[in-house]
Specification:
single chain; alpha/beta; Rossmann fold; five-stranded parallel sheet; 12 helices; about 40% helix; disordered C terminus
Length: about 350
Amino acid sequence: MQHWVSMQEYEPAQLAKLVQSALRHKRGATDEASALRERILTMVFFNPSLRTRTSFEAAMLRGGGHAICLNVGGDTWKLEHRSGVVMDGPCSEHIREAAPVLSRYGDLLAVRTFAALHDPAEDAKDQVIRAFADHATVPVINMESALEHPCQGMADWMTIQEKLGSTSGRRFVLTWAPHVKALPMAVPHSAVLAAAAAGMQVTVTHPPGYELNAGILDRVAGWCALAGTELNVSTDQQTACRDADVVYVKSWGSPELYDQAERQRADFARYADWTVGTEHVGPDGILMHCLPVRRNLVIADALLDDPRSVVVDQAENRMWIQSAIINRLLEGAGSSTSSST
């Protein structure tokens, strides 16, 4: 059985086929979502959502299927994911039971769970989404986990291809921006994975102490090498953004300051000049952000409202790429090969 848990479990060529499928569907090829008819997607949210829930529901409905939404701690009780624990705390049910039960009710199971931001090594294990993949009997979709947001990354790739045409050799810059609280690294991780798989020159720019996961960067560097491009990491935002075809803005917390909220806020204030404005994007470049975005803190009004901003197109493309992902998982549901174990 095949899951959609991590982009790293696929080859760049496989990912490129998903992008092409989503583009065909968006252009009106209705057969690209044929497998969704009369199918049920069960979504489990440990964290809030606007675009993720709506885009998945819209994809299922447009394809003739249905989506069920469960909010952990709201619609249902809290779920335990650790093995061998005595469940005498706030969790009433273990994923070992919840995942196979929910698998009986639908055709796919999608999960959204954020990083705890206590220990980078623990977050890197991605234990909650992995527990669902281990115990579900239907394909599992990652709607954002501690380590990756693969649906967002693929929507980003699709958007870049729409706007720029060929992605090969184009300059992709992921730039950090300040915030009011520590945020996970799942989106930046998937953004650079997608850019590398698409054959782009990848640059990551951030202040000292905001390094992304080393394993993710190793995979990005490997995919860049396969495409004949390079990964560069810089602490000079202005130079990094110069001549970029794509400026992708995202905030994330410093691993060195996990569980230190006051120090993290002070560090954000130190780098207030990293707010991205019109001067960071060239006349032929595009601005990207996954949303939600805090205006005039992360990105200036003038740039968000500029024609170079494609953030709304990115958000729409979540629906199309997710439809393609669901379609492929359902088409291959009879396969004995698993990509998540």
